[in-house]
């Protein structure tokens, strides 16, 4: 029906992907690297085209994770350089600023990471790092958010395809 027509159109545009699972997974990996498309865009796209379910989900998670971790690492390095230049000019942070940072790291990063599907995981990571959160803590919660939302999206999409078919 509609799903088959979409698949036919897609494979007529890119015939070399039809039946070639390795190229299909590479395609999903590349799609999941793209900010704002990420795993939550790549998974439904791959599943809609009939690519294998579990490999699509795993590859999309890995691709999204790699791009978000590279972004976190790059932003953290940039922040470190800026901080070292400002350190000479600034004085000690106030007790209030230290306490606010503590609360953000304790509650804010998980919230931002789990909201990553709404605002994009790259942007969520940038927000957390800009607020002064620790790189390892942000990385951990972004990983949890990416995996959790990818599994939810994959299961819901497969359920929807099953109901439609």
UniProtKB/TrEMBL annotation:
Keyword terms, alphabetized: Membrane, Transmembrane, Transmembrane helix
UniProt entry tagged with the keyword Transferase: no
Q: Is Lipid biosynthesis among this UniProt entry's keywords?
A: no
Q: Which domain of life does the protein's organism represent? A: Bacteria
Question: Which InterPro entries does this one have?
Answer: Sm_multidrug_ex
UniProt feature coiled coil, ranges: none
The membrane spanning regions, by residue number, are 12-34, 54-75, 107-132, 138-164
* Identification of the protein by name: Membrane protein
Q: Which organism is it from?
A: Geomicrobium sediminis
């Amino acid at each position: 029906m509609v799903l088959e027509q979409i698949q036919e159109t897609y494979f007529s545009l890119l015939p070399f992907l039809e039946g070639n699972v390795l190229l299909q997974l590479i395609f999903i990996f590349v799609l999941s690297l793209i900010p704002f498309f990420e795993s939550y865009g790549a998974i439904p796209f791959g599943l809609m085209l009939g690519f294998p379910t579990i490999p699509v989900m795993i590859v999309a998670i890995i691709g999204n994770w790699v791009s978000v971790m590279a972004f976190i690492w790059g932003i953290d390095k940039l922040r470190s350089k800026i901080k070292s230049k400002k350190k000479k000019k600034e004085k000690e942070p106030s007790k209030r600023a230290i306490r606010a940072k503590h609360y953000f790291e304790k509650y804010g990063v998980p919230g931002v990471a789990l909201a990553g599907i709404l605002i994009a995981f790259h942007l969520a990571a940038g927000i957390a790092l800009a607020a002064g959160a620790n790189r390892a803590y942000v990385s951990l919660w972004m990983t949890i958010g990416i995996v959790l939302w990818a599994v939810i999206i994959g299961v819901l999409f497969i359920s929807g395809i099953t109901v439609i078919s």
